[in-house]
Fold these 4 entries.
Entry 1:
Amino acid sequence: MKPVGLLYVGSVLLHYGFDVTLIDLLNRHDPKIASFVKPKPDKQYGTGKFHTVEISKPPQLSFVPRKYKRYGAPEEFFIHELKGIEKPDAFFVTSSMTYWWPGVRQTIEVIKRVFPNALVVLGGVYARIYPDHARLHSGANIVYSADLSQLNTLLSDLFGESFDDDLSDWFERFDPAYELYDRLGYLVFFTSLGCVYNCSYCLTPKLYGKWVYRDHERILRMIRKYVHIFNVKDVVFFDDAALIDKENHFKPLLRKLIRANLGVRYHLPNGIHARLIDEELAWLLKQANFVTIKLGYETSGPLQNKTGGKVQDEDILRAAQMLRSVGFTSSEIQAYIMVNMPGQTEQDVMNAIETCRKAGISISLNEYTPIPNTTDWLELTSAGMLPADVDPFLLNNTVLPYWWKAGMDVATVQRLKDLAHGRTSTLRS
Ligand code: SF4
């Protein structure tokens, strides 16, 4: 998990000559955190558990029989880092999962406690999806809900001078500014942005517009540079749709990575399109040393077509067979299955689990959450199955089955999770 969007903002600020400091409270590898809390050991590929603190549950969640925790570096560390910054002009805070907004508000509260006159700009996924909510609740002075191409306007408004370098090609021109870190366990990059599909549950096409990929020489130079600086062994591509136009994009990129032989492992954790995998692509992935391949499957049954038709059961079976035949193990290939999609039956999920078993691949079962402005959202709210003004808080995918009458109940979701993980029922009362 890396704040890649914020790192691009950092790049643009460095480009304009600003003095930039990064505080990443989720960087488990920050050596300074060790003075505040014992670091948790790494698991596989530079990943591991975040530091957590159990905090009191907000009253709106009192009906959920689960613990409520804050993840990330301790507050004392954050305050210490803030106090090390001399006369900051502005703070740029990012956000990811919309239902984590109380954490964003708390982050901004701490900044304003240390710098009462701080100018705080909030961006990221929550700010883009829920700008009105963020304006009301986050405590930020400015909620930035555009993409990076509009950053000039914001900077001119903030600092009263003109920033007029054309940023419309920011993705092509800039690398995410990893040099702002001291130490890292792995690197995350995007080689492409957007998607040409339009799945009913996904906001990617609306967030990014048309699908674009970056020049391969630039991608390779970026990877080489940061692998060298941080001496990391793991490089993650977080594209939403890496395999679109694979003959012009991902296959040539893979050939370059093979030739470059950087001595790292590569990962595709964001669900690639099973239908677009062919024998050559599978072979190139193996030769390049990819060790994590996740396939976007989501569900079996009629919803496959109703939600956009990106994949069928046969695509999963065929892709798995091709990947297995070039040497990928069952634990290196995993399919994402969503549970609790609108209109999904328990049998649909059971069939999807069975398909993965037949394919000889692992399963990652994730609970569905409705996202504003998606087709699902518009259908659910106009049919009265979801209040349009529901607090994003309550849309936490773990929380949803406890109250959402139009979806599966907690017992069903748990039964399916147990089935996916080969357990007997572990339902908590
Ligand atoms: S294919 Fe993936 S990225 Fe594209 S719209 Fe569907 S879920 Fe989103």
Entry 2:
Amino acid sequence: MKTILILLLLQISVFTFGQTTKIAENLYSYTKPIQSADQHCTPEIKFDPLIHENIAGPYDGGNLQFIWPFTQAIDDGIVLVNYVDNRSGTGIKDYNDDNWAYDGHNGTDFSLHDFRNMDRFYAVKAAASGTVVQTVMNNYDRNTGWTDVDPANKILIRHDDGSYAYYYHLMKRSVTVKLGEYVTQGRIIGYVGSSGVSSDAHLHFEPGHFVNGNWTKRDPWSGIYNQLPSLWDDQLPYLGFRDFVLHDMGVYTAGLVGGSFNNNMSPYLKERIISPNTISGYESKIGFWMLIQGNYSTKQIKLEMRNSNGTLIDDVSYTNYNQFQYGWQWWTPDFNPGISVTGNWYFRVLYDNVEKGRYFFNVQLLTSNRPRLYPAAGKCFRRSVFLQRDTLRVRPVRTNMQYELVGAPPNVSITNDSIVNIGTLDQIFRVREFKVIASMGGSASLRDTMIYKLIDTTKNHSIGNGIVSLELKSYLEGRYNGINMQGDSITVLLRNALSPYVIIDQATVYSLPNGSSIANFHDANSGIYNYLVVKHRSSIETWSKTAMQFPNGFPLKYDFTDANTKAYGNNLKLKGGEYCIYSGDVNQDGVVDVIDVASVDNDLSFFIQGYVVTDLDGDDFVDSADLAIVENNANNFVVRMRP
Ligand SMILES: [Zn+2]
């Protein structure tokens, strides 16, 4: 069952939903609609003497050195979809003498993949230092169109040289700076949203200045069609007309897109369809989507579906000759293999016969989907004297949902199972994050996470530029019985990668019986390397093998239990097939020795009970089992190992 089609996208358009086009059998494409010259993602900028100042005389902005205005790098969830159109009148010319823009576009548009990424908070940084002269922050932020919308949430910063930069389309209530405040370059000023005239979550970044009361945009990118100096301290290479870029992909069933593969797909794709946990071999069709960008220039794109034995089940291919600034393509082949071949099937994406990606999905008897917080999984709340509330909603509707607060401050609680109450903010730094994990009966896989940002502009900015999260797995030797663990509090430290390994931040968290814990760090930066150090009141301090980098926008997962090489110096003990942190350092001096043995022995002789430091196995009795653990580790000269 092979379908091979070679065609010109512009010539064949047999099936459309808005901008959806059928390009081959069961294969569809959705691109950003083409904007006409009178449709802009930002309003015309008019001079307001209360806010704006003119610059007298010639100005080329050459003293500005913009930094990249995101925590994440290009292609790390961020796609450059429009440059500045430098051509006056009709027609498009970006700085590179190409047309990676729309007609009359005055800024640079950086788009997030989807609203799911928006909910994971993409921070916007001040590209240059300056004074905040305008903020708008309360408008709806999940627009997907250009008509009948509220204005954009935005920030206007006046630079030291008298020029300005606009940051448009921010998330509702996410502006983290105050009017009149001087912000230094690199400071987080808000989060990417889709407020105002906006089809996708994106930042429109527009520098410029006023001359005689007229706004003059300034294209920061320097090239053939803009010979003014670049305003970037490190201008990226030209990002239009690259070869095929596969940004993201996944699989889905009809149930995840409203029950039918024939529905308008763009709302689902823009929210990112979350792949099912398992897919039934009796689904009659299956869907595969991919988010792509680039210029195909006559090369072939091929999609394959293979079963868990690697056998090719179906494929489709096509060639197109268009630029594809940003969008999705999806394929809905017939499925229904039954359950004769279960396990990990996969889709393969090939461009010009080179594999660009592979997406695995698990085929079983029944389809199961994880719950999903709806309609958003990320929100900002600002300081208020009133109690603020938010109701958690999950789709599909489940009966056995559990909601757990993670890293929440004391003024936050959950009542009536699903209402988040946020009292008057009392926090050290301006932005604080907490999460709610919604799970089906506590399941580790059937769950979703809601992120809240609490913004209190009466407080200072944190020294870090956001929050990083660690999803840790670790077992404590004494408390682990080979199946699960007596949970206990542990302290996780982040320490600088270089001597003297300064402590950057620390969090005390509860380690669950399955060894998992989540620690949020407010003073750490993503992208920076830190050692992870686990401390427990009666265990050997244990360091990660190497310094670890927190990814941008997502938690770092670190598992100390699956290999002894995960710990510095391989300093873990194998017990019941899992690697555990050594127990027995009762006095926390970094060595398990006769002093620790003596204190356990002493408490044992007095039949000490309860939550005491010498009860190494957590059964609330100090007994011979505890003594055996500490004696064994003392005999083996167990010590802390660290760089
Ligand atoms: Zn724009």
Entry 3:
Amino acid sequence: MIINNLSKSFSEEILHDVKFRLDSNKVYSLLGRNGVGKTTLLKIISNLMEYDSGSIDSNGKSVFFVPETPQFLDYLSGYENLRFLCEIKNIPIVNLENYLKDSNIKSFVDELVINYSHGMKHQLSLASAFLISPDILLLDEPLTSLDPINIEIFKRMLREFADKDKTVLISTHIIPIAHQLSDEILLLSNKQIRQLKNNYTETELTEYVTNNI
Ligand SMILES: Nc1ncnc2c1ncn2[C@@H]1O[C@H](COP(=O)(O)OP(=O)(O)O)[C@@H](O)[C@H]1O
Ligand SMILES: [Mg+2]
């Protein structure tokens, strides 16, 4: 996917001539402060929001966006929600059964979603995303509610997903998370994106980001 000269304003301009590209087999972090425009950019590239000018060449790739606050049918179980998703998206149920076999959501998937914590809902939405299996997976601030063990599991899952010729882009405002998880960092500040290879140490990256944000 190639984004070129993308601009977007609400009452004031949020994105100005933003340019970057997303390649297969890579995990990217969209890093920036609260309110800088991360969610706006993710919604634009997943076609959920209009933009003012510029271009997005998705090169025929499918895109799926997981919002910060995932929505489910609260009075169904996690399993029933996933089954429903499979039905409406024509995904074979065997894919769901296979996914559940090595997933840690199986410990709570039969409980009603109304009783889930924020972190549990996030794991359920990740399950939905993996079942849908888009070429480009966009996750909006997925880690804020995960504990350290789940972050490790999550990191491994994202890597395995990207290794199947796919792309993952997660937004975050937390520098160590961007450093731990991604191959490249898209730093959003002053309405523009700077694309960095993640070959810095965490200290170097922190220094670079705090000087350029
Ligand atoms: N639908 C909208 N209408 C008007 N302003 C919006 C809308 N969505 C976001 N904004 C504004 O755009 C800016 C960027 O928001 P957002 O993309 O949510 O930032 P982030 O996700 O980086 O925290 C904020 O100032 C926000 O108030
Ligand atoms: Mg946001």
Entry 4:
Amino acid sequence: MYKAERLISPRFSRETPRLLNLSAQAEFELSSVIEKISGGAYVFEDRECQICNGNRFDILAEHDRYGIPIQTTICCECGLMQTNPDMREIDYKDFYTQHYRKLYIAELVGQPEEFFREEYWRGQRIVDYVLRYVKIPKNALILEIGCGAGGILYAFKQRGYRVVGTDLGVDNMSHGRSMGLDLRNGDLFDLELHENPALIIYSHVLEHICNPGKTLQKVRELLGASGHLYIEVPGVKDVHRNLFQGDFLRTFHLAHIYNFSLRTLTNLLKKNGFERLAGDETIRSIFRPGKTQVTFETDYHDACNYIIHTENWRGFYGWAFRRKNAVRNLFYRIRSVLINMLKRTGLYSLTKRLLS
Ligand SMILES: [Zn+2]
């Protein structure tokens, strides 16, 4: 494999101190992961690009946001950002089973109701987005891979759909099951279904999968001719306005093997027999089975320009993010005060009726 040294900036070199601090529990998990890497328990191997099978990469960063020594690269042919060299599947399995949740979402471990509520909120937005583009008959089957506590599926269930979810982690599953959801432990390849789902959901999952091509082939087989696939991943061209606050170092971490733009995601899907129905750079997207296309539209130059621009304007984007949050918080505080005032004066129900 050929690699060129081309870090985004000196901040992305191995010598630079890590960006984020962690809780004591997450700090313990981080030490265990770094020990497994430095001790050779986790093995890193060079990979070909999943889209173009290329083997020329520019190096973007030598460590992730927590200082874990992984290399994030961009493919010089198609522009897909990816960890390379990358851990073996068996190492990722150990990482997800033993460390992932405690390291990345430590604050929600042991709080399945909170976890469910956060998923349910996202689920309502996903239902609205999907139904804007796809007509799905009531009572159709919706499948989610990597369903967590099942909150996203619960939003679909409330709209009259039958739902099934699978996840490798069982931490939060019992809460979803107690809400009447059919949640199964396992992955896509363990799943037994007696009909084709109308929709398969991958919400913040595809970027974690070692071999997305193999997964997408299986998804296509499961969907049949008329199903749809919803994919949500953190978009690399959304960094200037999302919670990463214009800082690429916040986006890179061991759990994200791939960092997609809408174009590189679409290239991957086309290669595996899908066509895009809708999508944005957030990234929310809908695909349906289509022709397999081996040709691709490169994102290399666009992605490099975006990275350089974002890094140059990082201070401004961080400032804009904080101002936007401050305004939003102020709005919610004022709203809460007004609602309390109306409730105290007995005018709340009347005002709600007048405004609806
Ligand atoms: Zn490539």
